UniProtKB/TrEMBL annotation:
<dbReference type="InterPro" id="IPR042099">
    <property type="entry name" value="ANL_N_sf"/>
</dbReference>
<dbReference type="GO" id="GO:0004467">
    <property type="term" value="F:long-chain fatty acid-CoA ligase activity"/>
</dbReference>
<dbReference type="InterPro" id="IPR000873">
    <property type="entry name" value="AMP-dep_synth/lig_dom"/>
</dbReference>
<dbReference type="Pfam" id="PF00501">
    <property type="entry name" value="AMP-binding"/>
</dbReference>
<keyword id="KW-0175">Coiled coil</keyword>
<dbReference type="GO" id="GO:0016020">
    <property type="term" value="C:membrane"/>
</dbReference>
<keyword id="KW-0067">ATP-binding</keyword>
<feature type="coiled-coil region">
    <location>
        <begin position="524"/>
        <end position="551"/>
    </location>
</feature>
<dbReference type="Pfam" id="PF23562">
    <property type="entry name" value="AMP-binding_C_3"/>
</dbReference>
<feature type="domain" description="AMP-dependent synthetase/ligase">
    <location>
        <begin position="15"/>
        <end position="420"/>
    </location>
</feature>
<keyword id="KW-0547">Nucleotide-binding</keyword>
<dbReference type="GO" id="GO:0005524">
    <property type="term" value="F:ATP binding"/>
</dbReference>
<protein>
    <submittedName>
        <fullName>FAA1 protein</fullName>
    </submittedName>
</protein>
<dbReference type="InterPro" id="IPR020845">
    <property type="entry name" value="AMP-binding_CS"/>
</dbReference>
Amino acid sequence: MNRSELDFHFVNRVRQQAKMLNQATALRHKVNGGWVDISWEEFQFQIDRVSLALLAHGIDVQDKIGIFAHNMPQWTIADLGALQIRAVTVPIYATNTAKQAEFIINNAEIKILFVGEQEQLDTILEIKNNCPTLEKIILMKSTAEFSPNESLLSWHSFMGKSADTDPNRLLERLNDARLTDLFTLIYTSGTTGDPKGVMLDFSNLAHQLKSHDLALPDVVGREDVSLSFLPLSHIFERAWVAYVLHRGAVVCYLESTNEVRNALTELKPSLMCAVPRLYEKMYSAIQDKVIHAPLHRRMLFQWAINQGQKFAHTQKSTWRHKIADKLVLSKLRNLLGGNIKMMPCGGAKLEGKIGEFFHAIGINVKLGYGMTETTATVSCWADKHFNAASIGRLMPNAEVKIGENNEILVRGGMVMKGYYNNSAETAKAFTEDGFFKTGDAGEFDENGNLYITDRIKELMKTSNGKYIAPQYIEGKLGKDKFIEQIAVIADAKKYVSALIVPSFEALEDYAKQLNIKYQDRLELIKHSEIIKLFEKRLEELQQELAHFEQVKKFTLLPQAFSIKMEEITPTLKLRRKVILERYRRQIEAMYS
């Protein structure tokens, strides 16, 4: 492999930037309420210490290292420390349950696991004895309470082990770096069955670094500040942080999404990845204020937005736009700190009118389409002349065609190597000519914009970008004696809800025991004691589910889904499109 190709090996890119930028800021994080900088020199020093400590613990080439934590500098330091010695990083969502974490640890055969805080530590200690390959747990934050032992070390103690390794061993691994090495396994939920480990190698990441350089020429530079609050365990934020570091910009870590508003004011970032939910909330809050404003202010607002939309489409500034910007648009941009020049948006579909609104106020929201299996971005909105109803145009060197059932098929250097230890699912995921099957149906328009028209795969994604396997949740809850049928609602919604058909035989017995009087089934399911019963049952049934998978609201239905009404198939599978349409009013009420 020639040197120029290896220049885009992510480990080499970080080392090159550290050598060049030295005392410039690489990372920023909050300590005791104030923002603290970490220089490129210190960043690289800490990465090297992790690498040497991992070598001291006998980590071999392509061994698996887990990270189970919220966003923090140590997340990236541990990640790169593992990658430098050609190990493979396996992220685990900080909110995963013990059962979910156990599956990933065992399937990936993780040897060393970095954990963030008390919550993650407690989760791992619960299942540690069920994980035979797990040798060491490293606690990254000092705030957790624990008793250190041979298998459980503090970050400080672990880093101290770096002194036990000859630095030449690290140099040997660095010199042997290959683009064909896996850099990560990311576990993605399937519609049924166990999660699948997506194998991504350094060539996948190098492809995306190059394609983003071509798609975003000179957009990201050393003067830029990127706020990182989406989970690094997700490919969207992880790949974006890799790109920011590749460009030599500053990454600012937020451990809690509750702090985003304050961080925008304090840091005034120029870049920030976000999911559609953030834009939806901002748009709703602004519209709510406008509705309650006096007539003259409502008229001024609408006029300014119209001027902004004209500018967004033509990129030609007029005196009207300048006035609109001064009086209204700039004030709206200040809600995001005032310095944002681009906001990558992904993880779910963003409603067109909301995207257009942000472009009108001067925020370059760049909606992208991709998935874990494609190392994130396949397509994204262009800077101008894009259609907000689309998912954008193809990234450089991405190949897409429309296959059977109008399925969007993807081929290119960004596509995964397959699913870890799962040749059957890998074979199912590709066409004979090597295109990856996305599970989304779509089409192109005459201008090259790509559109999603339907979902082929039974997998839902909330507006927060979380994947939900509805059949899995329905299976868990549907076992209850009071539940006859259940349809989970989650796609493009801010949380999971459900339509539930009770088992009326059991429910009527229960009502009799409590001496509940009712005229008919409709009156019965509206009774406060019945609502309380289902709230309690759901709470008990959902303990094994991750927080984002849990049903937050439900509606009880007086009659069952039927084959006659085409709500279920002859094999009793839900026809979700029909159900969503027929019960639209009830569903909307759960999100109002």
